[in-house]
Structures are given as structure tokens and as C-alpha cells.
Amino acid sequence: MLVVKFGGTSVGSAERIKALTNLVVNDTPKIVVLSAMSGTTNTLVEIANYLYNKNNEGALETILQLEKKYKQTIEELFSTVEYKQQAADLIESHFSYIRAFTKDQFTMFEERAILAQGELLSTALFNFYLHEIGVESVLLPALNFMRINEDEEPDAAFIKENITLELAQHKNCNLFITQGYICRNSFGEIDNLKRGGSDYTASLVGAAINASEIQIWTDIDGMHNNDPRIVDKTHPIAQLSFDEAAELAYFGAKILHPSSVLPAKISNIPVRLKNTMQPEAHGTLINTESSGTGIKAIAAKDNITAIKIKSGRMLLAYGFLRKVFEIFEAYKTPIDMITTSEVAVSVTIDDTKYLNEIIEELKKYGTVDVDTNLTIVCVVGDFIAESKGYALQIFDALQHIPIRMISYGGSLHNVSLLVNTADKKEALISLNNKLFK
Ligand code: ASP
Ligand code: MG
User: Fold this and answer.
1) pLDDT at 325
2) Does domain 2-218 have CATH number 3.30.70.970?
């Protein structure tokens, strides 16, 4: 069985939803994971914000606009009176559910319930459409099997057990549709896998059913060797190892949600990135193999903050780093890069929600400096330990750019460099010219 995931633009209009059937309807058994129609989740976030701020008027107006968009979509999507009516009833029920929150008190729980409506709508509409054109399909409710635990980590055993039960009820069916992104938490409440989480759903579902392959369909022909928005003449990478793909996904190649590599890697299920607009293109295949050594790609991650803690007490001391890391842990703030000298340690973070609190606590251990507007430029590949010259090539390309931090040797797959965001474009272009001649 295949797991195929389509993002918001692939279901972004009646036309795109119709075109999707060309990719989905064939003899290969599959589970189709869908995102919400593009723009929907953002609008639902907006609605939730209005409700938080007790601006019911703003909420109602935005709900009305979104509902209009859906009404227009079903007008274009369905051709029979029967299905137009079914779809209209569906929309009516979801939007009256959302509207009801303008009358009730509003908490975190309600926000997540509102955010779930996008995927519930897109999957139900696609399923109705398949039925209207005579294709047999079954809607699998993700809320019955996708679950996260107290630490907000997916509960793999629960997912496996429950999706298997769901599938067993439809032995003769070849085509299943389910919602990306949404899940329940350990209290059984509606929750989600964070923004962009549909890829993660696909990977978790793939692992749970031991899929033959997980396909992530987007609007680009795979992961590129550099950021195509900044650098000319980038090309898709035909094959990457799980480790290389994880580094790239985390450090900026927006095409794949970074968490989605791990479940596939653990279960050794190949992940293929494909382009909806160009289905015949090879895309990128991610699996256990490495397609040889050397530099494969460059990615960049913006909005990075660097924090330097300098202390005489670090000299020859043990336990200093633990104390520093415990502060970040207490504020659930992940660290990306780290470099040390004998008297100082620098780390980078991208989540600055608790920055002030973290700085205050760090001050107990030394002087603290904070730099903002930084970018991590990450060079990814398979660098075997004996091979020489990678660092030279990279530094040669960046000789005219100030470098704030360097991280090399953490894994054999990544060299990370911290630069000012103002220098990012030049860094990417110069690396591209030197590394991919
Ligand atoms: N609809 C959700 C979002 O916009 C999940 C996803 O698209 O992957 O973040
Ligand atoms: Mg996405």
C-alpha cells in the first residue's frame, strides 16, 4: 500500500481537486493524506485570533468570507444536484460549528478544534467528488487513530493499532482518504501536529501500515541543491539518504516537514518527493542509500538568534554546559548550533518566545551577548571522515563574508555556518558557484 500526501495548493481549487483524481485513481492501493485547501489554515488562525481578542465582529466577517470561498468551490466542483446538496450541507455544518464559538468562551482547546476544520472539509469534499464520478473510496477519520502523547510526541503504537482496525473494516477498498495535520492529544481532545504537519501525518501513517512508499506531492520537482528563489539554475536532487534529507528539511528546504523523515527512516520506508504539476518528473527519492560522497545541497534557515555565554568559571570546569543546557530545556527551547571555546559557549535558537527569561537565567553563569537577524547556511552531503578539502572549498567560497559561527563534525552530513541574514544571498550564490561548477 502507498501513502500519498497532497498539500494545500493541490486541493486549492475545484480545478485542482478534479486534476488530483488523475494522480490518485488507479489500481495501486493507497491512502491519500490531504492538507486543508491553501489559505484555509491561515484564515482559521485569523478567526481564532479574533475570538481570543473578543472581536466577534471580525471573527464573523472572516468566517463569512471563508464560507463564501467554499460555497463557490463546491459550485464549480460538483455537477449533480444531489452532490451539490450534500456538499452544501457539509459546509453548513462545519461553519455553524465554527460560528458557535463566537457565542462561547474561547480557550486553547477551541482554537485547535477550529484549526481542524480545514482538513476535515478538504478530505470530505474530495471523497464526495470521487463518489460523484463513480470512484469507490473510504474516508478514514484521522481523529480515530492519529494521537500524540503527553509530550506531544506521536503515539506510534496507538496509531498502528487503530489505523489497522479502521482499515480492517473496509477489506475490499483500494482507496482511502484521510486528514493530514489533525490528531487527538492524550486527553482525547482535538489537537494537531503543528503547522505544515500533513507531511508528518503521511510519514506516521506510512510507518504504521508499513507502506511500500510514502509520496509527498508538492509544486516543485523535489528537493533542490540550493534555494531556487535565490539562486539561478538549481536542480532537483535525484536521491538522498534519510540523514541528508533530515538535515536539509530542518535547515530550510521548505518542501518537507523536518519531523517527517524520522518515522520513515526507522521503518525503512522510502520517501519520494513529487511534483503535482509535472508528475512524470523523477523528483527526489529518500532512502537508506547514499548516492556517493561529496557535497549535495545547500540550504538556509533565517530568523536565527545567537546567544553567547562567557564565563571564567567555564575554564577547566565540568558541569558548566549542563547548567546552560538545562536553562534551554526548562523553557522547551531547542538549540540548533553550538560552538565552544575554553571560556565561552555560543548557541543558536530560532524560537525566541522565552528569550528574555533564558537570558536572565543565563546571566547567573556569565556575561550574555545576543545577536539577532542571523541565518544558518547549511551545506549537506556525505562527508567521509578521511576525505579532505570540503572545508577548504566552503571557506574559499565564503572568504568575503563574515562568519559568526561554524559547526563541522557534528555529523558526517552537515557543515553549518552562521552569517548575517543580510549576507545570505551572497553566501548562497557564492557557494553555489564554487561547489556545483
Ligand atoms: N493545513 C496545515 C497547515 O497549513 C497543515 C499542512 O498543510 O501541512 O499548516
Ligand atoms: Mg507543507
Assistant:
1) 94
2) no
